[in-house]
Amino acid sequence: MASKLLRAVVLGPPGSGKGTVCERIARSFGLQHLSSGQFLRESLGGGDAQGGAAVGLQLWSCVMDGFGSILAAFLPLIPAPVHCDAYTGFPRTLGQAKALDRICELDLVISLNIPFETLKDRLSARWVHPGSGRVYNMDFNPPHVQGIDDLTGEPLVQREDDRPEAVAARLRKYKDAAKPVIELYKSRGILHSFSGTETNKIWPYVYTLLSSKIPPVLSDEEN
């Protein structure tokens, strides 16, 4: 059985590609990807577009330190063996970072820095499948049938906070909340920041960093 060698967090504003990066990390290094959205959906029993998803957003906005208890509840359920737990979408505030400290010690934090205009365009074109959290972008990753999830055939929705008028406020809120979190991890010497406008161009640098920490199971070209 492999021992846990690394615990990592991927930070970034809404639309920065955190989920895509974590999925590639999981494939390339044989790791377990844990997302805050996954925890919320499972803790709420899924829910529909107008019910569970809305409750999940409200819950996320108010849990703060308490979210650590949800995270802790799911950690024992992770299948073994795993080399690493890679968290995405958490922590978003200093309070949540301190809650995570009580659960585990992080070895690595990856911060994605994407220009405001790029994020605004990405978010405004984003649609999701509420039941699974699958994300589509109408510009570069559209569904096979417009407005329909590829796997279930169920309708996609655009979240209220992905609408153009709400995006700017979301990004400002993230910037204010994330600054002390980033400073915390920077002071610990575990923060690694990557800047760019395309995930495909940022990814090789993330891959190289992780390859120095843990052996990959796939080459960069295979991912």
Automatic annotation (TrEMBL):
<dbReference type="InterPro" id="IPR027417">
    <property type="entry name" value="P-loop_NTPase"/>
</dbReference>
<dbReference type="Pfam" id="PF05191">
    <property type="entry name" value="ADK_lid"/>
</dbReference>
<dbReference type="InterPro" id="IPR007862">
    <property type="entry name" value="Adenylate_kinase_lid-dom"/>
</dbReference>
<feature type="domain" description="Adenylate kinase active site lid">
    <location>
        <begin position="126"/>
        <end position="161"/>
    </location>
</feature>
<protein>
    <submittedName>
        <fullName>KAD4 kinase</fullName>
    </submittedName>
</protein>
<keyword id="KW-0808">Transferase</keyword>
<dbReference type="GO" id="GO:0005524">
    <property type="term" value="F:ATP binding"/>
</dbReference>
<dbReference type="GO" id="GO:0004017">
    <property type="term" value="F:AMP kinase activity"/>
</dbReference>
<dbReference type="InterPro" id="IPR000850">
    <property type="entry name" value="Adenylat/UMP-CMP_kin"/>
</dbReference>
<comment type="similarity">
    <text>Belongs to the adenylate kinase family.</text>
</comment>
<keyword id="KW-0418">Kinase</keyword>
<keyword id="KW-0547">Nucleotide-binding</keyword>
<dbReference type="Pfam" id="PF00406">
    <property type="entry name" value="ADK"/>
</dbReference>
